[in-house]
Amino acid sequence: MQNQNEDGNHFGKWQIAKDTWCITNHWANFMYLLIGSQKAMLIDTGSADGNIREIVESITDKPVIVVNTHGHFDHTGGNSCWPDAWMSREAAMYAKEPFSPIHREWFEEKDYPDYEIHELSDGEIIELGDRQVKVLAIGAHSEGSLAFLDYNTRAMFTGDEIESGQVLWFVRDRNISAKEVAALHKKNMEKLKAYRDSYDYLWPSHNGAPLVPDTYINDFIALDDDFIAGRQVDAPNTGGFGFPTDTQKPGSPFEFAGKLKRAEHGCAAVIYTV
Ligand SMILES: [Zn+2]
To answer: Could you tell me the distance, in angstroms and rounded to a whole number, from the CA of residue 21 to the centre of ligand 1?
Structure first.
């Protein structure tokens, strides 16, 4: 069932900065709408639940560029409300793969299930008119993840690569060890740090936003180092609503993952396969 509140609303929205909005589908995702003088840009589209195009067009009448932080379907499902979307080459390989039959139904009932995909790469600048957004490749949680740096509002949008509940390290397309994911993740955290003069907050896709950059980035680098050195400290399942660790029960969306563990360092937490 698609979640609606007592007034029939599926989406919530609020302004986070000038010409900048956060949209949520009942707290499952945070999606961001950046409005320039010529165009608007929507970062991620949810799981095809509801009609995200309607809420976007209730905020702006500018033409909308749809971009995705990565290819997981809870970020790309609503792309089928538009004729095209921009994402990394890696994300394009599975952006149209729904997580479940109901997701497929929602996706296919929109106007553009065959939407066209355009490629974004590291270092590119997206011009919205008096507003430039830089694309940074930061893949670890998922291959081809992108961050978006908005110079106007000094905001860094980080998708699922840095967030407060836990970063999932077991949902990659290519199955590599937690130690190898940690090395990729550390390199990306250092990349975000190199741009630190250009932003004030991190805006992730799940589990609350914004985040204080230095605390999170430094704690994630420390946690990545723990994995690289093989000294990570396993923690009880305490983040957010509690992400299910240990052996996944039949029927869980993460049943395929088998046995999972959580490790923490300060504010940083990841879920990984044993
Ligand atoms: Zn993801």
So the answer is: 21
Cα–Cα distance between 138 and 233 in angstroms, integer?
A: 24
Ligand 1 centroid distance, CA of 199 (Å): 23
Helix (H, G, I), strand (E, B) or coil at 180: helix
Compute the average pLDDT of residues 50-62: 96
Domains, the chain, in order of start with CATH, read 12-229 (3.60.15.10)
Q: Greater confidence, 195 or 9?
A: 195
> Could you tell me the two tokens for 33?
């709408």
Residue-wise pLDDT tens digits, 211-229: 999 999 999 999 999 999 9
CA of 47 to the centre of ligand 1 (A): 11
Distance CA 65, CA 33 (A): 10
- In this prediction, residue 114 carries a pLDDT of 97
- Cα(130) to ligand 1 centroid in Å equals 30
Cα of 141 vs centre of ligand 1, distance in Å, is: 7
Mean pLDDT of 257-267: 91
- Looking at residue 92, the DSSP 8-state letter turns out to be H
Tokens 């936003």 correspond to 209
**Which pair of tokens denotes residue 157?**
């949008």
Residue 53 CA to ligand 1 centre (angstroms): 21
Q: What is the mean pLDDT of residues 156-181?
A: 93
Cβ neighbours of 47 (radius 10 Å): 24
Question: How many angstroms separate the alpha carbon of residue 170 from the centre of ligand 1?
Answer: 10
d(CA 46, ligand 1 centre) in Å: 11
Q: Is the pTM of this model over 0.85?
A: yes
CA-based nearest residue to 161, from 177, 195, 138, 184: 138
